[in-house]
Amino acid sequence: MTDNLNNNQPNPQQQEVKNVDLFGNIKQRDVGEEMKKSFIDYAMSVIVSRALPDVRDGLKPVHRRILYAMQEMGLKYNKPFKKSARVVGDVLGKYHPHGDIAVYDALVRMAQDFSMRKMLVNGQGNFGSVDGDSAAAMRYTEVRLQAIADELLEDIDKDTVKFVPNYDGSLQEPSVLPGKMPQLLVNGSNGIAVGMATNIPTHNLGEICEGIIALIKNPAITTKEMMQIVKGPDFPTGGILRGTKGVFDYFETGKGSLKIQAKAEIEEMKGGRESIIVTELPYQVNKTNLIETIAGLVKDKKIMEISDIRDESDRRGMRLVIELKRDANGQVVLNQLYKHTQLQTSFSVNMLAIVDGKPRILGIKEAMRQYVKHRQEVITNRTRFDLNKALKREHVLEGLLVAIANMDEVVSIIRNSKDAAEAKLNLMKRFNLSEAQTQAILDMRLHQLTQLSSIAIEQEQKDLMALIKELQDILGSPQRVLDIIVDELSSMKKNYADPRRTEISNEISDFSIEDLIEEQEVVITLSNDGYAKRIPLDTYKSQNRGGKGIIGGKTKEEDFIEHLFVTSSHSTILMFTNRGRVFALKAFEIPEGNRHSKGKAIVNLLQITGQEKVTSAIAFRDFDPKNSGETYLTMCTRMGTIKRVELCEFANIRRTGIIAIGLEESDVLVSVQETHGKSDIIIATKNGKSIRFDENQVRAMGRTAKGVRGIKLAQGDNVIGMEQAEREGEQPDVLSVCENGYGKRTAFSEYRTQNRGGSGVITIKTTQRNGCVAGIKLVDESKDLMVITEKGMAIRIRCEEIRSVGRNAQGVRLVRLEENDKISRVAPVVKEEEEKTETEEK
Q1: Catalytic site residue 338?
Q2: Which CATH superfamily is domain 379-496 in?
Q3: Per the count of CB atoms within 10 A, which of 16, 117, 311, 326 is most buried?
Q4: Distance of alpha carbon 739 from alpha carbon 746, whole angstroms
Q5: Which tens digit of pLDDT belongs to each residue from 157-200?
Q6: For the whole model, what pTM was predicted?
Q7: Picking from 304-308, 416-420, 819-823, 836-840, which range would have the lowest pLDDT averaged per residue?
Q8: What contacts 353, CB < 8 A, 6 or more positions away?
């Protein structure tokens, strides 16, 4: 007995479910198959019947049922409002057996001007706000249909769409609405089904109507041509769409990513401060949450330039005021807000809709084709309905005319019949009439049987015959149907279209860190031991010639400032090492310091070896090697070798650096200049010699080439600098600075042009007073001179105070040095910024 029981036990891995039907019969079912079937049924129910819109009318079932129920209740746009609770109750009881909250939420969304591009429901009461406030309870709000909702429901009573039984079979409901308005594209849709989701943006009604008309007229229209008509999404909250690539992608494939920015302006406030005024937000952004996010960034000191945030929005529109501190740059702060808050959002388009009962991703042209296909069916069904009605009426009129022509006999037959049934039968037999014609005669009143009525009926019959011919022509001509669609769309555009709200911008919306850094003039310093720092230019004040200066950089006792130049914080700096390699670095990537800090070790910024150090640097404010034209990097080494390389050779500089020049074992790179084939080069040595020649005497070479001789050096001499000046136009002066603080300014014309490779001429006498030459620079009246000593002292002097003398003169004192200190480096500075600073201080 026990064995029999054990044998009858099912295998747990193959356990089956026993279903009992109404007659008590037991059916065996596999659990896995039953679960699979049940889940698929559930998933398809969610996909088709709840979460995804139908491509034909652009509505989900709940929205379709709400609109149909409101029409059945007589809630037209020109009728009185009724409580939302009545609508929700009708929808639940008749068509949609789900939760009342779900129905009311769907109703509310159709009445929100910040959710729908064209509202379908006219709401009276609190229907929520862009701040995230929820709508009032359904017992407080009232609704009726908007006028444009009639365009979705029009002709529904003319057998234009298929009706199906409701959930309990007691009523009929439409499976789809006639949908004259292209709802799917105008108001978009979003929903999450099982394993898939849809997110369709809203568009401008006028543009969509024009786009569909263009597609009808030219079925082969390209996506780019369509984008000339339908510019892109048009969100109800406005905003700015950055870039059109995402638009092209979803127009073409149904999928794409859009960058939407808030519309903001920077306004001047009292006291020289700025404020950011936000007037439009990206679609579906909660304003209250946005304000909290900004406040959190300020509290966490991620954005420190904001002093106050106020929401001044009212019935006239949105106005969010973000006040900035006195020295803040409004555009930089706005870029930071775009990057870190929902002032800029991504909208991932996925145009998924139900097509022929199945979910399908559609490009915009295919969505339009499906709309046109649906409207063709609706118009055909409507025309057929009108034709049948006209034919029936014409048939009746034909019988009435027979009755009027034989009025006396008709009256006699009716009078002599014992009842209506006998009268109908006798009339049909006598005049060969149909039942419908006979019934119409019996329904007529005696006063209608006059000559005037006969004329009216004959005119009506004539009009009906013309209408019947017109309707038959429409049914026999697909082009006539398309023409009707075009006329309807044109009329809809005329009646309901409004201007575009979302601005389309071709600018790239992705922010690099450069967009978040204020552009300003900065001083970049590099020390002999390899420390770099960035200091705002206005840190330094102009002083008179001979002053002691201020500290430009604190260094170790044995360290000194070796390189200094002025550029923009957004510039690209090419740094060349003693071994002939070049690295690219943005100026703002160099940490900002103050006059007393030593900076950050360059080995932490560049991947250089222990025996390698930066010997030269050049800054490009707009670094685009591929479009550089005739732009060269002219290089000079300590042993007098010179070389020119086209800038395009440096288009792809790796983080690990690339070779800029091939060097001899004992040689190092001294100077690099940007030239354009129109300059003369001047090379100077530490013993006071220099040579000037045409740069074109040096042919352009590859990056790894070693170059040619630029100057012939005497024993113990080496190159300390190279400068370039264009031959045409006013030429600058040559400023020579010696290590003991003396220098002189000499006209460039004093240096005669020679051939490359000579010994050169005297630049400045290197006496015991002057010491060796520390550097040369080309200057004019518009520049100041920045002088840095080995101990880190910096002085900025006006070049106009240094008089011009001959090449053989010893010069004048430029800097009063401390004991055992020497000049390390010099750099020219444009003095416009400094003069502005002095004026502000006064």
Answers
A1: no
A2: Topoisomerase, domain 3 (1.10.268.10)
A3: 117
A4: 18
A5: 999 999 999 999 999 999 999 999 999 999 999 988 877 889 99
A6: 0.66
A7: 836-840
A8: 52, 53, 54, 55, 58, 184, 189, 198, 200, 359, 360, 362, 367, 370
